[in-house]
Design brief:
- By secondary structure, this protein is of the alpha/beta class.
- It has one domain: Rossmann fold, CATH 3.40.50.1360.
- Helix content is 34%, strand content 16%.
- It is built from seven helices and nine strands.
- The strands form two sheets. A six-stranded parallel beta sheet has the order 4-2-1-5-8-9, with helices on one face. A three-stranded antiparallel beta sheet has the order 3-7-6.
- Helix 1 crosses helix 2.
- It is globular.
- The two termini are 13 Å apart.
- The structure holds fructose -6-phosphate.
């Protein structure tokens, strides 16, 4: 638990940089699972700063994003492609071909093959060294909403009404928020060698309490993380304020 979002984000960015540098020293690729939303913004800002000021290179980094709305055009302001470019990729030296984000432009019948391929691509490069996560107020990780199975893989899902309400501001009204998304599954996330879940502010305190102290249940998919040996929760004081 950290004093505030800034201190916590700096720590998470440091951990990411350490993985990248360690892999560099072994001449290997670092495979990172990335998240979007408000939560990781300062983490990415720190990574950009380290790239500019400390020469942190992303030449040996491969990334897989957790999710994308469906349908979604990559150049739309609300797309996660746009978000990642603006907050991270446009400001670092990552190779474009090493970036992977679920494709919101697919035809519906193309989605199952795309999802299998996404899983295969992660396996082929040796699996995720680290997956970073935010958490939704429904208890979703990625867009694994209540009802998601612990062994779920990358797939098309329906967004919870609360998730769509929380996204309404970005879309100028809930009615404009896509009903569906393509997301890595809980099972995909679990295969990462290390998982960091971040949460800031009082708004997240009730779901953090349920996730950490509540019964493990598909009703709150993030509670599955209680079963992982490789997960760290990085919280600010406010998000941790309801923990006993
Ligand atoms: C984003 C994602 C979501 C968000 C969650 C929290 O890629 O997978 O699970 O992490 O909805 O969103 P923010 O950070 O905006 O509160």
């Amino acid at each position: 638990v950290y004093k505030n979002e800034s201190e916590a984000s700096r720590e998470v960015a440091l951990q990411i940089a350490n993985i990248i540098r360690e892999k560099q020293s072994e001449n290997k690729m670092a495979v990172l699972g990335l998240a979007t939303g408000a939560t990781p913004v300062e983490v990415y800002a720190n990574l950009v700063r380290m790239h500019r000021e400390e020469g942190l290179s992303f030449q040996n980094v491969i990334t897989f994003n957790l999710d994308e709305y469906y349908p979604m055009q990559p150049d739309a302001r609300q797309s996660y492609v746009y978000f990642m470019d603006e907050n991270l990729f446009n400001h670092i030296d990552i190779k474009r071909e090493n970036i992977h984000i679920p494709d919101g432009t697919l035809k519906k019948e193309e989605i199952p093959d795309f999802c299998l391929d996404y899983e295969n691509k992660i396996s082929t490069v040796g699996g995720l060294d680290l997956q970073i996560l935010g958490i939704g107020r429904t208890g979703h990780i990625g867009f694994n909403e209540p009802g998601s199975a612990p062994n779920s893989g990358t797939r098309l899902v329906t967004l919870d009404d609360l998730t769509r309400r929380d996204a309404a501001r970005d879309f100028g009204g809930k009615e404009n928020v896509p009903v569906k998304a393509i997301t890595m599954g809980v099972g995909t996330i679990f295969k990462a060698r290390k998982i960091i879940l971040m949460a800031w502010s009082k708004k997240k305190a009730p779901i953090i309490k349920k996730t950490v102290e509540g019964e493990i249940s598909g009703k709150v998919p993030a509670t599955y993380l209680q079963l992982s040996e490789n997960v760290n929760f990085v919280l600010d004081k406010d998000a941790a304020s309801e923990l006993t």
